[in-house]
């Protein structure tokens, strides 16, 4: 579904992502793991179009999307969440979510001023979408709460709902389970499985190994910007290089 | 040709003043992410203090400058303590708006206290020097040399003292430096003191050449902003270099462009450069 | 989103009062003051669009006000064009210049944009002042004819009052429609986080330009009405001090609130009238007020009222500001104080 060729990004002299060849397969959950500063988020920033690659190419369903701006990538069906959720804390959950479906609407300035028929239709579509994704992530009761007043885990769910509101094919999740407890983590893992069952392709960055080993179909390991391994969870947990560079310990102690 | 060299000297004089003011703004920006719109008005206050010290209290030139610098250091520290420190954790745009409030207050106060007239400060050094066939007033030489001395002094302070090197580290690199464990409040207080002192010194040096009036700071302030945007906000070498470049450019173009439009040139330059390079001339790539 | 004042009758009542005032008094002193308040409210509401809702602090708006004023003034006085045509051209010109300036400057982030816009404002005011062959420079532009629509002359203060009230109501209506729509929400999402908005498929640059053009058009409209009312212009209409005053009105009333521009402009201008004898020195009082506002009332009067109301309905937790900062450390920096909860 998505493929990168020799994807590279350097900031000044610092190479954050180094010649990464990588593939995300339709309908799978692909995970990216690696130590802090390995370049995982930067990799997401590249494939979501937020950063321009220094060199290398990105293909989405065969089409070259290397230098497309972020908003076009989003329209083509890649949605993402951020490591910090970036939600608007002072607004309600619903107000945050409505904008998620904006990219599928066409109304401009004047149709909004006169509240044209199409505008009213599109606005109600946005509202329906927001309610629908909120229900999907199991947070319907939060609709009218200000984001600042809901828990960290609820915010993560809302951020995922926001990504889903864009009607994506591929969802990139950047550390969705960071800062939440074990119970909540397994709840979140359930949600991610549910997304897969709904036909979405998912790519996830996560430090919580147990969750990843259970969820992922395939894993890529990044270290200092370079891909050092790729394979199924079982393969990764046996891989010598990975254990040395990252897991640091016996494979099975980490995997389970 | 002689006219050309004359303009170079004038450009250096102008550049010296711009650099000193821009240095203060860039230091404050580097430390507090605050574009201090009131800085030019501190410059104006510095000129008035020197003016009154000489004309009303009979001080001679250099002691008056020293007094003015000391007075502005105190005012700068008060501003930091009363206005900008309390806003340090608020969104940055708030402290920027506060600096506009301070600016409006200082200018109105100056107008109320001293009127809007233009005042002339007679230079104690009104002789001329013959240098390679150029006649230059002594005051101009003094401005150029004092500015260089001040910049060298500032450089030594930034390089050789602990607090100085912390200020420099923080100004150049936003994060990181807080980890060194030096009291951040002390750093911002010192920064305001130094920046205000530099502004007072620049204004006092320029006072005998320019006139002294309440809105004298506004244009200098805007141009100093042009300079630090061009030089990269927070960059110390950028401020110095940018100051001299703008001073020279204005002075030289002044002979060729209608002087009515001279002030426009600086802003047009800024617009042009930001159009081509949205992060300034010397700034690092952001994305 | 809630509208504020919430009660249904407040807006119609206000409108009725505004319509009735000239019938109750023909004291031109008060009418004149209200007209000035209306004109500046239109300009400030433009500033609110870009600075408050889209989160990009622009200090160029006095310049655009001056541009609108001079365009109308010059077209009417020197090209003998009719009032309506001149008004349309003035608004169109500020919109076009706004689009060009926006395309260049809105790529700049945070402080760079504010400083750039400040310089743009200075450029516009310098051009007006120095281009004497066109604008008459500091001598001022005299002889703007009385605005006429059809055969009706707006020669009395009362007729001007209704003319300008009409445009104020129109501007506020359009602003309300925008703010409470997907378009306005798009602006707000950009203020919240450009990266998130971009990732949600929003063409951030295009939206920012739209917000900016809308805001310059409002400033230009206000300027044009000003020129048609006073029929005399000096270059100081475009001066940067006016941009700072607009910022003051906006912050006092409440940035990113619909009614903030009107409340702030009315309040501060009325206070300035009381301090008439101070004239040049009024900033001795208003400078510190600006500082105190950002320190203690960053959401302005309307923002504070809305928060109070929400707190009473206990929807908004006390700790919202602190929590907000912890959660979104990176984005609060760029954002202006304010919130659209009362929009
Ligand atoms: N915008 C940027 N400008 C400069 N350097 C950057 C930028 N973004 C990331 N980097 C650098 O690139 C490297 C990789 O960072 P990245 O955020 O991708 O790591 P990560 O794997 O996501 O780490 P973590 O697990 O902590 O989230 C780091 O050295 C970081 O400092
Ligand atoms: Mg990361």
Automatic annotation (TrEMBL), chain A:
GO BP term, pick one: L-valine import across plasma membrane
Key word Nucleotide-binding present: yes
Domain of life: Bacteria
InterPro entries, sorted: AAA+_ATPase, ABC_AA/LPS_Transport, ABC_transporter-like_ATP-bd, BCA_ABC_TP_C, P-loop_NTPase
Record GO terms (molecular function): ATP binding; ATP hydrolysis activity; L-isoleucine transmembrane transporter activity; L-phenylalanine transmembrane transporter activity; L-valine transmembrane transporter activity
Organism this protein belongs to: Thermoflavimicrobium dichotomicum
Gene Ontology terms: cellular component: plasma membrane
Protein name as it appears in the record: Branched-chain amino acid transport system ATP-binding protein
Transmembrane segments: none
CDD domains attached to this UniProt entry: ABC_Mj1267_LivG_branched (cd03219)
Cited SUPFAM superfamilies: P-loop containing nucleoside triphosphate hydrolases
Keywords (A to Z) from UniProt: ATP-binding, Nucleotide-binding, Transport
UniProt cross-references to PROSITE patterns, sorted A to Z: ABC_TRANSPORTER_2
ABC transporter domain ranges (all copies): 2-249
TrEMBL record, chain B:
Chief place of localization: membrane
Domain of life per record: Bacteria
Swiss-Prot/TrEMBL keywords: Amino-acid transport, Cell membrane, Membrane, Transmembrane, Transmembrane helix, Transport
Single GO biological process annotation from the record: amino acid transport
Gene Ontology CC terms: plasma membrane
Transmembrane segments: 12-31, 61-79, 141-158, 189-213, 225-245, 265-283
Keyword Transmembrane helix: yes
GO molecular function, one term: transmembrane transporter activity
Keyword RNA-binding: no
Similarity comment: family membership: Belongs to the binding-protein-dependent transport system permease family. LivHM subfamily.
Listed name of the protein: Branched-chain amino acid transport system permease protein
Organism of provenance: Thermoflavimicrobium dichotomicum
Highest classification ranks of the organism: Bacteria, Bacillati, Bacillota, Bacilli, Bacillales
UniProtKB/TrEMBL annotation, chain C:
Ranges that cross the membrane: 30-50, 57-77, 83-104, 111-128, 209-227, 247-271, 283-306
GO cellular component: plasma membrane
A GO molecular-function annotation: branched-chain amino acid transmembrane transporter activity
Subcellular location(s) of the protein: Cell membrane
Domain of life: Bacteria
Membrane topology qualifier: Multi-pass membrane protein
One Pfam family of this chain: BPD_transp_2
Keyword set, alphabetical order: Cell membrane, Membrane, Transmembrane, Transmembrane helix
Name of protein: Branched-chain amino acid transport system permease protein
Organism expressing this protein natively: Thermoflavimicrobium dichotomicum
């Amino acid at each position: 579904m998505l493929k990168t060729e020799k994807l590279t990004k350097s900031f000044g002299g610092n190479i954050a992502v180094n010649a990464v060849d990588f593939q995300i397969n339709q309908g799978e959950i692909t995970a990216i793991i690696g130590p802090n500063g390995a370049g995982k988020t930067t990799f997401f920033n590249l494939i979501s179009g937020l950063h321009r690659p220094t060199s290398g190419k990105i293909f989405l369903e065969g089409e070259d999307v290397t230098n497309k701006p972020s908003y076009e990538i989003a329209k083509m069906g890649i949605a993402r969440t951020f490591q910090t959720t970036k939600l608007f804390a002072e607004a309600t959950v619903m107000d945050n979510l409505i904008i998620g479906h904006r990219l599928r609407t066409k109304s401009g300035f004047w149709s909004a001023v006169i509240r044209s028929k199409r505008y009213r239709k599109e606005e109600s579509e946005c509202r329906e979408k927001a309610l629908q994704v909120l229900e999907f992530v199991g947070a319907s009761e939060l609709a009218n709460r200000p984001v600042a007043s809901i828990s960290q885990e609820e915010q993560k769910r809302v951020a995922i709902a926001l990504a889903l509101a864009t009607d994506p094919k591929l969802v990139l999740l950047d550390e969705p389970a960071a800062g939440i407890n074990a119970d909540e983590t397994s709840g979140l893992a359930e949600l991610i499985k549910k997304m897969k069952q709904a036909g979405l392709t998912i790519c996830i960055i996560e430090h919580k190994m147990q969750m990843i080993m259970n969820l992922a179909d395939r894993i890529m390991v990044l270290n200092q910007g370079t891909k050092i391994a790729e394979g199924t969870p079982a393969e990764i947990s046996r891989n010598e290089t990975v254990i040395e560079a990252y897991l640091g310990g016996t494979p099975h102690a980490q995997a389970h | 040709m002689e006219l050309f060299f004359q303009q170079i000297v004038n450009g250096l004089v102008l550049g010296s003043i711009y650099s000193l003011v821009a240095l203060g703004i860039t230091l404050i920006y580097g430390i507090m992410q605050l574009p201090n719109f009131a800085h030019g008005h501190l410059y104006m206050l510095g000129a008035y203090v020197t003016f009154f010290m000489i004309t009303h209290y009979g001080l001679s030139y250099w002691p008056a400058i020293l007094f003015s610098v000391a007075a502005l250091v105190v005012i700068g520290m008060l501003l930091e303590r009363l206005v900008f420190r309390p806003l340090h954790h608020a969104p940055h745009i708030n402290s920027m708006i506060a600096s506009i409030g301070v600016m409006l207050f200082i200018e109105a106060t100056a107008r109320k206290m001293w009127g809007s007239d233009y005042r002339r400060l007679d230079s104690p050094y009104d002789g001329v020097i013959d240098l390679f066939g150029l006649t230059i007033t002594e005051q101009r030489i003094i401005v150029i040399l004092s500015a260089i001395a001040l910049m060298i002094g500032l450089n030594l302070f930034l390089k050789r003292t602990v607090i100085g090197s912390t200020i420099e580290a923080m100004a150049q690199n936003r994060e990181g430096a807080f980890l060194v464990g030096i009291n951040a409040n002390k750093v911002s207080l010192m920064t305001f003191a130094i920046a205000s002192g530099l502004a007072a010194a620049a204004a006092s040096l320029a006072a005998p050449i320019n006139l002294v009036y309440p809105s004298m700071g506004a244009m200098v302030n805007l141009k100093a902003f042009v300079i630090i945007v061009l030089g990269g906000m927070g960059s110390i070498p950028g401020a110095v270099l940018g100051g001299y470049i703008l001073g020279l450019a204005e002075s030289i173009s002044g002979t060729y462009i209608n002087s009515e439009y001279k002030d426009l040139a600086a802003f047009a330059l800024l617009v042009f450069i930001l159009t081509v390079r949205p992060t300034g001339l010397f700034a690092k790539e952001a994305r | 989103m809630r509208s504020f004042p919430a009660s249904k009758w407040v807006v119609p009542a206000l409108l009725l009062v505004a319509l009735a005032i000239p019938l109750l008094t023909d004291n031109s002193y008060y009418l004149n003051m209200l007209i000035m308040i209306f004109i500046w409210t239109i300009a400030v509401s433009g500033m609110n669009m870009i600075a408050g809702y889209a989160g990009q602090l622009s200090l160029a708006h006095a310049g655009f006000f001056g541009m609108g004023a001079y365009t109308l003034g010059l077209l009417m006085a020197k090209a003998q064009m009719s009032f309506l045509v001149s008004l349309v051209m003035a608004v169109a010109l500020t919109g076009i210049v706004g689009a060009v300036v926006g395309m260049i400057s809105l790529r700049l982030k945070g402080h760079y944009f504010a400083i750039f816009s400040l310089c743009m404002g200075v450029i516009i005011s310098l051009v007006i002042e120095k281009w004497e062959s066109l604008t008459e420079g500091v001598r001022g532009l005299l002889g703007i004819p009385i605005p006429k629509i059809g055969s009706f002359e707006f020669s009395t203060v009362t007729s001007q009052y209704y003319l300008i009230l009409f445009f104020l109501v129109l501007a506020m209506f359009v602003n309300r429609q925008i703010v409470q729509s997907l378009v306005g929400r798009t602006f707000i999402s950009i203020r919240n986080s450009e990266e998130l908005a971009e990732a949600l498929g929003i063409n951030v640059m295009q939206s920012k330009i739209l917000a900016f053009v809308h805001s310059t058009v409002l400033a230009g409209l206000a300027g044009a009405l000003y020129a048609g009312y006073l029929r005399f212009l000096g270059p100081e209409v475009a001066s940067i001090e006016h941009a700072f005053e607009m910022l003051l009105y906006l912050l006092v009333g409440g940035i990113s609130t619909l009614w903030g521009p009107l409340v702030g402009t009315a309040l501060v201008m009325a206070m300035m009238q009381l301090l008439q004898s101070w004239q040049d020195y009024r900033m001795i009082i208003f400078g510190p007020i600006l500082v105190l506002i950002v320190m203690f009332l960053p959401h302005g009067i309307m923002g504070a009222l809305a928060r109070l109301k929400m707190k009473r309905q206990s929807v908004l937790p006390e700790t919202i500001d602190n929590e907000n900062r912890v959660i979104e450390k990176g984005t609060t920096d760029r954002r202006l104080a304010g919130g659209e909860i009362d929009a």
